[in-house]
Amino acid sequence: MSEVYKIAIIGSGPAGMSAAARAAKKGISHILLEKTDHLSDTIYRYQKGKHVMATPSVLVLRAECEFDAGKREKILDQWNNDVKAAGVNVKFNAEVKAISGDKGAFTIELKAGGAIQAENVILAVGTQGNPNLMRCEGGNLPHVQYSLDDPGEYTDEHITVVGGGDAGIENALGLIADAGQNNTLTLLNRGADFPTAKKPNVDALLAARDAGRITVMTETQAALVEPGWLTVDTPQGQTRYKCDRIIARMGAAPPRAFVEAAGVQFASPDRSAFPTLTPTFESTSKPGIYVIGALAGYPLIKHCMNQGYDVVEFISGNTTLEPADEPLLQEKLKGLPGRRSVSEWLEFLRSRVEILNGLSPLQMREFLLDSQVRAYKAGEPIFVRNEPGSSLFGIAEGSVKVEVDPSNPNITVPIGESSIFGEVGLISGRKRGATIRAAEPTICVEIPRMAALKLMSQVPQARETVQRITTERQVLQIFKSGLTPADIAEVLAGAEVFEVKPGEAIINEGDISDDLYIIRSGSMIVEKNLGGKPVFMSYVPAGSYSGEMAMIERSPRVATVKAAIRSTVVKLPAEPFRALLARKPELAKRMTDEMRARREINEFIESQKEEFGGAVDMYSSVANFLIKQGIGEATDVLLIDESLCVGCDNCEKACADSHDGLSRLNREAGTTFANIHVPTSCRHCEHPHCMSDCPPNAIRRGPDGEVFINETCIGCGNCQRACPYGVIQMDKPPPKKPPLWEWMLFGKGPGPGQPPYEWRKKAAKAEGGESPKLAIKCDMCSGKAGGPACVRACPTGAAIRVTPDAFLSVARIEKAG
Amino acid sequence: MTQAGGHTERVRQRTHEGFLRHKGFLWAQVATGLCVVVIGVYWLTAIRLHEPPSGGSWLGYLLGTMGAGLIVWLACLGVRKRVITAGHYSLKAWVSAHVYLGLSLIVIATLHTGFQFGWNIHTLAYALMMLVIASGAVGIWAYATLPERLHGNRGETTRRQMLDMIESQDRQLHELAQPLDRDGAAVVRLSIEDTDLGGGFWKRLTGSYDDCANRRALARLRNLPSPTSAKQAEALTKIEQVMQQKAETLALARRQMQITAVLEGWLFVHIPATFALLAALTAHIVSVFTYW
Ligand SMILES: Cc1cc2nc3c(=O)[nH]c(=O)nc-3n(C[C@H](O)[C@H](O)[C@H](O)COP(=O)(O)OP(=O)(O)OC[C@H]3O[C@@H](n4cnc5c(N)ncnc54)[C@H](O)[C@@H]3O)c2cc1C
Ligand code: HEM
Ligand code: SF4
Ligand code: SF4
Asked: Considering every ligand atom, which ligand is closest to the CA of A253?
């Protein structure tokens, strides 16, 4: 029988490698299994020369391998040496297919055949998953590759890229970027369109195709791979053409199924959920399997490496290990009243705040690293109405009062210990709806949006609590009128929360239905059929309601309400709501007034339609155009009135000059309709897609509602891929220009605006030094007193920044009519 | 949702105004008011004298100071446009004031002269000023009429894309020319190597490209003797198509450059004349105080 290892480590990324090195140093029998023929495939596949960042800088590294910020190549070399020096028993080309057995006797089956026995298993396979493979005959030939490190490497080749997602399109465009490389490119796409790719990528691809620089074959699949040739199935039949290299980018299968098959449970079926673990990283459902690194929800290299070290300590019975983040937490909790130790604080918060009850001490630690604990004096404001803010607060001690009536701060509603507040900002990302003050000396924990979302995905109990409280508060906040939770209990009992796809209607004109809807996230547009055509009536942002006319008047629906973007709505049943109206005349009056105002707008549009049909049609089609451009999820968007724009590009120059010399907007690019041009520039989405997968959580929402990237960005490019509007660039700031007056008087330097590429290259060489390429996007000129420079610098007033609800108002008809 | 937050342009307007209409023609009203007052005062003073008040009178000094101050301030726009500071300014407001106050100079400076003209530095300064103003007026015409054509012409194609299109058409031509004989290849080379996209300012402004190499190549292509092989014949047909496409792309790009040239061209008078004016103005003021 073969050797039974004490620990088998699967995956040699920073986490697994560090675990193996620690085990080797401690003389524990171990084996490190790696799928590929090199260590740390995720880092191996970074772009050549990528500057790897070592954040968070305050966290101390505790590992047997060195790690410092620097070039990818340097770090990989370092690790190769460290692993060798530590005497790690590593087995390459050892992809694990399945894990069976129980603690003390696991059998690890390898794909290449054979099995390995181990008492404990450390799973450190990361989240990259396995690329989907070419399944056709010849798909395993060596000229088929699944990644592209350096597009500049290939010249004079016939290359076929398989896959019409962003990765495939970006690779293809990279390979033809320099015509001098003289590659002949073909892109195969299984479908007729490119639904998963970003619009700018698709546009660029189609433009390249139209310009004859690439052949795009849609509804086509590879049928046979031979050295030098590729045969494909097209709708017109098979064809065979020259092909020296195939780059297959057909997506990746996430490792979750493999992990679950081993018996490790995840917190929820949510795609973003992580495995449930004990404080020592052990699976709660499968003792003996330990999960660390990105797979466990810790995507930064430093975290991964520390965990590798810690987990080996835990397995070998060390129970007194002080976590590496202890000093960070001490620092964080320093100034607070109560003289508690870190672990006492953790327990205090966990047991006192309802949504934290279900967390493990390990989760509590990580959670607290992201969050803030603060003490407030009685009467001190915690946040103020109309402030933007997307964090969630939990009350650990004391209570707060909510000023529900902006005109009278004395009307307040209390929220007590253990409850939460700020949840509306968390869900809709819009401004704070009310001022909240501490009612007595109070201790609160402030949870940033990302941490709160993670919490909700990990702990089902937290999610339910937040959902319940959110619905209740949102109803109270929207309808105000002195309602109390008791008043609306009956209405809420029948409430239903559901998602609506873009374009899907929640209310259809003419229908007999009378429920009321609250828009929790996303936005709606209201349309009415006039003269056989749907005419845009109004825009309903998150945090408002719709459907009150039919509910109050028991009449058929007067207009269609459909989602502008993916939205979440709460449906409130009509009967209990009518009963509520009968009991609360103040609420009834409020809603009737609002209904009258909305009806006036509708009637105005209808009357205008009769007199100035053209103006109304124009208004309607402009609104539809903007919604199609994704303005429905914007909170602040730059538009250019092309009847005024003289093409001077002063907006771009101003942007560059007020932001390290790089322009964050591309005026010319983008789409246009009826003189309204939507340039390529950030819209500060209500739910920013870019935030969804940022390892250091560097993308935040600032005080003016701007979505910005802070200095912790590690340049991984996830946000660039996630933004559907193509507004994030990866770049490094150019060297400093000589002062403007020297340019004006002596023509020194490149002058105002973003310096040309040539100048940057020369000046960077002269300057020397290495700087990383980081994510760069509009920050709405955050912190600049005068506001966005693009708008201020436009000489003609063509550039404007607008919010969708203000811009899509009927005032446009009056102007045009 | 109109929250100011203390920022000039962060106020989200429902509709918006161009620089000419800025703040409901505020600066037009200020400038008109200024002119009315100045004309009124001048007329009241003039009717009591038998000769109109000249630059040397108290009123002349007043108007002269106002005019010189205005000219210096107007010239500062060139700096304001390029120095992007964080403050509360809006270039649109500056341009709006620039245009209307600049026009009011016609009244202020003309009255300052007291209608005394001659072949001297004083009249030169006046003439230069009128040149700057006249070119400014041309600029207003351009800004008011050309933007729609500028954007209508390009649709959603960017300048970069136009250049890329031409480059790729050249690559196609190069490949298609492989089977051709020497004469044929020379014609294709003419189009690839000698086509000049823009040319000097005048050329771009007038948009006359009769000597365009691509156009000549097309003409010569049509006059080539009949090809000897079917392969060549096919290549020639395709080449003609691509050259035709290239001609269209060139026309699009050149129209774009022409409109841009008009939009910028007037500044080539406005700015140098401003510098000349500032020099003449200095000379005018120095000579007045030295020789009066
Ligand atoms: C482009 C990019 C840039 C980034 N930049 C930074 C940065 O600058 N700084 C930073 O701190 N973080 C950065 N990150 C994040 C960081 O790289 C990852 O979070 C980190 O590598 C995760 O480490 P890990 O050990 O958990 O998993 P991984 O590094 O993903 O390693 C998993 C390993 O397991 C192997 N494996 C997978 N499945 C199997 C199997 N079945 N059998 C055997 N082996 C298997 C894989 O081949 C791989 O080698 C970046 C991420 C990306 C994508
Ligand atoms: C003596 C009077 C004037 C002086 C000294 C003057 C000077 C200047 C200067 C220095 C600039 C900056 C150009 C640049 O750097 O790009 C400018 C721009 C401009 N001027 Fe004048 N000007 C005068 C009168 C006028 C008048 C009367 C008009 C209009 C009728 C006018 C219209 C403009 C316009 C439209 C711009 C362009 C603004 C922009 O695109 O940024 N000017 N002027
Ligand atoms: S708001 Fe500021 S950062 Fe954004 S595009 Fe304008 S100038 Fe650039
Ligand atoms: S970067 Fe993209 S996803 Fe993020 S807020 Fe801006 S437009 Fe939205």
From this structure: 1
Q: How far is the CA of B281 from the centre of ligand 2 (A)?
A: 17
Is the domain spanning A144-248 CATH 3.20.20.70? The answer is no
Q: Is A780 in the pocket of ligand 3 (CB under 6 A)?
A: yes
Centroid of ligand 4 to alpha carbon of A637 (angstroms): 10
Q: Is A581 exposed, middle or buried (0-12, 13-18, 19+ CB in 10 A)?
A: buried
Q: Give the pLDDT of chain B (292 residues) as one tens digit per residue.
A: 233 333 333 444 444 788 998 988 999 999 999 999 999 999 998 888 877 777 778 899 999 999 999 999 999 999 999 988 888 888 999 999 999 999 999 999 999 998 889 999 999 999 999 999 999 999 999 999 999 899 888 888 888 888 888 887 888 888 888 888 888 899 999 999 988 888 888 888 888 888 899 999 999 988 888 888 888 888 888 899 999 999 999 999 999 999 999 999 999 999 999 999 999 999 999 998 887 5
**Whats the size of chain B, residue-wise?**
292
Whether omega before A409 lies within 30 degrees of 0, making that bond cis, reads: no
> How many beta carbons lie within 10 A of that of residue A309, not counting itself?
24
Q: Report the nearest atom of ligand 3 relative to the CA of A664.
A: 8
Nearest CA residue ID for atom 15, ligand 2: B78
The 8-class DSSP code of residue B210 comes to T
Alpha carbons within 13 A on the beta-carbon side of A554: 3
- CA–CA separation, B76 vs B60, rounded Å? 24
Residue A675: list chain B partners with CB under 8 A: 148, 151
Q: Cβ contacts (< 8 Å) between A744 and chain B: which residues?
A: 79, 82
Residue A288 CA, ligand 1 centroid: distance in Å: 23
Which class is domain A4-129+254-315? alpha beta
Question: A801, B12: Cβ pair inside 8 Å?
Answer: yes
The fold adopted by the segment(s) A490-609 is Jelly Rolls (2.60.120)
Q: Among A533, A504, A500, which residue's Cα sits nearest to residue A518? A: A500
Q: Where are the domains of chain A?
A: 4-129+254-315, 144-248, 326-466, 490-609, 626-733+771-816
Q: Taking each helix axis from N to C terminus, what angle separates B230-265 and B121-154, rounded to the nearest 10 degrees?
A: 140
- Length of chain A equals 817
- Same fold for the pair A326-466 and A490-609: yes
Candidates B15, B86, B263; nearest CB to A815: B15
In the block, tokens 């210096």 appear at B72
- The distance of A803 to chain B (nearest Cα, Å) reads 7
Among B1, B84, B88, the residue with its CB nearest the CB of A793 is B84
d(CA A98, CA A115): 10
Contact (CB<8Å) B150/A645: yes
Going by alpha carbons, the residue nearest to atom 30 of ligand 1 is A126
Q: Which residue has the tokens 């004349």?
A: B273
pTM above 0.80, yes or no: no
How many CB pairs below 8 A link A and B?
A: 156
What is the ipTM, given to two decimal places?
Answer: 0.88
CA dihedral sign of residues A99, A102, A103, A107 = negative
Instruction: Please tell me which of the candidates B91, B146, B168 has its beta carbon nearest to residue A212.
Output: B168
- Alpha-carbon distance of B56 to A383, in angstroms, equals 65
Instruction: With beta carbons under 8 A apart, name residues in chain A contacting B260.
Output: 647
Residue of B89, B90, B263 with shortest CB distance to A647? B263
* Cβ of residue B71 lying under 6 Å from some atom of ligand 2: yes
Q: Model confidence over A739-778: pLDDT tens digits?
A: 888 888 888 888 888 888 888 888 888 877 777 889 999 9
- Structural class in CATH, domain A626-733+771-816: alpha beta
Q: Which residue of B has its CA nearest to A740?
A: B83
Class of domain A326-466: mainly beta
Identity of the amino acid at A574: A
All residues at 6 or more sequence positions from B218 whose CB lies less than 8 Å from its CB, including other chains: B191, B240, B243, B244, B247
